[in-house]
Amino acid sequence: MQIRNLLIATAFLAAATTVSNQAPAADKKANLTFAVIQTEDMSVLASRWEPMLKYLNKKADVKISFYATTSYSAVIEAMLSGFVQIAQLGPKAYLIANDKSKGRILPLVAAARIPTAFDPTPCACYYGTLITKKGSGLDSIDKLKKKVLALVDPGSTSGNAMPRGLFTVEKLDGQPLETHFGRIFYSGHHVASAMAVKKGKADAAFVSESMIARAMDRGKVKKEDFNYLWRSPKIAIDSVSIDTGKISPELAKKIREVYLGMDKDPEGQKILAAAKYSRFVATEDKTYDAVRKILAAKKKLKAKMKK
Q1: What digits encode the pLDDT tens for the residues 112-158?
Q2: Which fold is adopted by the domain 128-233?
Q3: Which residues fall within 8 angstroms of residue 40, CB to CB, at 6 or more apart?
Q4: Is 136 exposed, middle or buried (0-12, 13-18, 19+ CB in 10 A)?
């Protein structure tokens, strides 16, 4: 299966317009495009998703192509244009896509992660955390004043929305991150943020604990490399979301059943284990209501700061 970077450019828009004018995908050997944000190295993404999509192709009798994009906004725009019909979306990215599509984009399933060094309970959830380098002396939030902070992406929940919303209310008396930290930059993905802290290119970073655990599994970092100065509440994990205007209810049901049956099939179990998932669970729009409230509070806080 060919792995490409998805670029929003003239050629893409022309292709997207053509696709968006087509009728919803027929259930007979549907051709779909599945997109994800590049949260870690491309080779790692490929090794996780290629077997998964090959399994879906066979079990659901579809043909799914895989694209990795460089930002959450690129995934959302690709879905809104009709070029992408199914995607892995973080909670904030899903809510933006759902809102912009006027409810056309909806979650189908979510992956329950395996136990990690941070949380021994399998769960379709994760936590965001604020990290600094062990031995740096930066062992409190107060010591991070005027220091360099790495965020993940504007569309990231744990790597941007949570820090700019809940964290600022809880720890900075509602003041924006920019008033506390000296410089803020976006690294592009969680592992890059963690590595920036480890290598001293950032003093601190907001990242997903689950992504740190994945980096630990590959030997890139160790849990004891970092101080952990703040932990978010439990966050509903990324969803596999679909464009209901392009995928029929019958096909959506078929794809969901394949996902939900993976943990009961020997072949599916191997793929799940390799991807560090315990199983897939059904999810729905209301699962993300808690994140909606956080984003609403963040928006209200931002508006207040402009006055």
Answers
A1: 999 999 999 889 999 999 999 999 999 999 999 999 999 999 989 99
A2: D-Maltodextrin-Binding Protein; domain 2 (3.40.190)
A3: 189, 190, 191, 211, 214, 215
A4: middle
